[in-house]
Amino acid sequence: MTEIILEVKGPIGLTVEAEAVCPHRLSGLAPGEMEAQLVWQGPAQLPLSDFFEVEVREGEGEVRIAIEGDASRIKRIGQGMRSGCIEIDGSCGMHLGEEMEGGSILVRGNAGSWAGMEMRGGLLEIEGDAGDHVGSAHRGSWRGMSGGEIRIGGSAKSQLGGGMIGGKISVARDVQNFCAIRQSGGLILVHGRAVRGVGAEMTGGVAAVLGGIERFSPGFVETGMEEDPVLGGEKRPGTFIRYCGDYAISKNPKGTLFVRG
């Protein structure tokens, strides 16, 4: 495995858009060529070396990118990623793993909004908290995440899985508003609580909130109880109330919402 170590040089003011930080884009380049890859900071295109110290440890097989330091002002890491792995030893900015197709990304801190937007495959793991719109669709689009898996070790903000059509998202703690909005496929599993609007405009897929929902969406109808349902390939202990919806937008919705009683 070839290892590319990118060490953030220091504090970053204006955010940097770094689509170049992706295994298939850096694979096969000499260290000087990597340093010369262009990234955007506001209206200017600047070399990667303006923001990172670059070290390469040559090997065979897939590429592993290790990012060290505070990357919270760096956006679009792993955008369109196809293979290999990225490990971020800290937090990172928005659009992490956008349109990701394969490989894996691990963040040992927090991630900004739009992580995993329209993700198609691979594994995205965030050990801390995540912002808004994780696994969601672009503005103006109805098709969000379609494959792969997102794991969040902390909490997530609003519109988690917006427009989701496939794949799996799990959140270890709480979510805010409109989780699973416009979901039509896939699985969203929230181990903590949700605030309101879960499953609004939902037409398919499964969403489960183990810690309860503060304010229910009005278009959901209770359809029964289940003991220890299997969700995401694992048995979830307890009594769950099963709902179907969202009847506010369809006469025959196929969305399923589980809430532990």
- Sheet with the most strands, sense and barrel status: 13 strands, mixed
Determine Rg (CA atoms, Å).
19 Å
Summarize the amount of helix as a percent range.
under 10%
Instruction: Tell me the span between the first and last alpha carbons.
Output: 48 Å
Sheet with most strands: strand arrangement: 5-1-6-8-9-10-11-12-13-15-21-20-17
What's the tally of helices? 2
Q: Could you state the order of secondary-structure elements as H and E?
A: EEHHEEEEEEEEEEEEEEEEEEE
How much beta, percentage-wise?
35-45%
Total beta strands: 21
Task: Based on Cα principal axes, name the global outline.
Answer: elongated
The SS-based structural class is: mainly beta
Summarize model confidence as the mean pLDDT. Answer: 96
Tally of structural domains: 2
Q: Which regions have little confidence, pLDDT < 50, spanning 5+ residues? A: none
Notes on the structure:
This protein has 261 residues and is mainly β. It folds into two domains: 109 residues, no CATH class; 137 residues. It is built from two helices and 21 strands. A 13-stranded mixed β-sheet has the order 5-1-6-8-9-10-11-12-13-15-21-20-17. Strands 4-3-2-7 form a four-stranded mixed β-sheet, with no helix packed on it. The radius of gyration is 19 Å and the shape is elongated. The N and C termini lie far apart (48 Å). The mean pLDDT is 96.
